User: Fold this.
Amino acid sequence: MTNLSDLFHSGQMTDLLYTEKDLVTSLKDYIRAEENKLERVKRWADKLDSLSTSATQDPEGFLGHPVNAFKLMKRLNTEWGDLENLVLSDTTDGFISNLTIQRQHFPTDEDQTGAAKALLRLQDTYRLDANTISTGDLPGVKHKSQMTVEDCYELAKIAYSEADYYHTELWMAQALKQLDQGEVSTLDKVTILDYLSYAIYQQGEIPRALELTKRLLELDPEHQRAKGNLKYFEFQLEKQRKDKKKKYEMLCRGEGIKMTPRRQSRLFCRYYDNNHNPKYVLSPVKQQDEWDRPYIVRYIDIISDKEIETVKKLAKPRLRRATVHDPQTGKLTTAQYRVSKSAWLTGYEHPVIEIINQRIEDLTGLEMDTAEELQVANYGVGGQYEPHFDFGRKDEPDAFKELGTGNRIATWLFYMSDVAAGGATVFPDVGAAVWPQKGTAVFWYNLFANGEGDYSTRHAACPVLVGNKWVSNKWIHERGQEWRRPCGLTENE
Assistant:
């Protein structure tokens, strides 16, 4: 297949520019000839219009003049025939013949597709967003060229025809953005939303596809395909929800844990001093790997029974129904999916809390000044916290905004009791289960080093079947970690 670079290197691209310039000149000649012809016809019509208007006011008196009678005969016999020939005369010959000759050198559909794919390759290689390309704001350009809604749409359609739904989404979204910004176009939002919602569905993002379908139906309530898609997407979401719940419940029972013996063999336990931290050089702590992706570690004998009793004693008078962050408002609210009681403890109110906070800082190497206070939670029989993320996602712009410390970079979780049955911490998307063990703590990062959320960290606290579950956790935030955990450039760093 010919692509943009093939044409360019063969010199044909330059030739095509001159071909188009020649055709524009030819087109303008044709327009001038048509305008001249039309002007003559208009003059004839205006002359006849005024003549016939005055003549029909007194037909007999008008035709009583022999010259008028003669001229009427002449006009009808000769001049209207001449006008007919003028109207039928073809001014297109020069332009059409030129166009026909040049068309044999024109790019084909295959060439156009090749050029579109080349543009998409450049977009990926140089990480350019669609808006940068569409506005022509590329580095080093002299001749800025902007893309219209139609240009974006056609590029998206080429990607769509190749089942490239990633680029279909990018360019349909750009076309929609330009329409939303008020660009005048022959295309309408309904057509673009139809493609866009389907491309997003094909990438597995059903909630977004559903939202766009709803927007489409607001514009065109009788759109049959959208009405069908709405029902289908809602059915798929409900099915996903049930499947996830089933997986979560299986993990809580100790079933369906996805860890092959080979992966298991790569998990280790060790004595750990966090890069020779002075506090732990002579008495390192016991650390064991619980899971590899996401990387979850457990610290054993990390909080003493005496410290646990102090924490529980401080928390008990303040235990209230646990709250969660509402992603819409960014505020704390109670939710049915979290059944527990919790309290917040600050480092100022008791030396033990300060010691615990310092211990977390020493072992993780992360700054605690920007972390949230120590949260203590108590789960009775049936107490649970359904699958959730600790970090704020991109569709939750106000999450933790009031704290001003950025997103939750990591989670530290102390187990302050053994649980007779149930109460595991499970990660349904990866099939991991971590069981409560008094005096231990587990730790994981919620964000990659580049600041993007690690969606594999979605986790849940399984319902307590028998017994009483006490935990305390520290949510550590991004601000203050800039030198302690430097940014990475790729998502997997």
In short: The chain has three domains: 10-104, 109-241, 261-477. The first strand starts at residue 269 and ends at 272. The chain has a mean pLDDT of 87. The chain is about 45% helix and 15% strand.
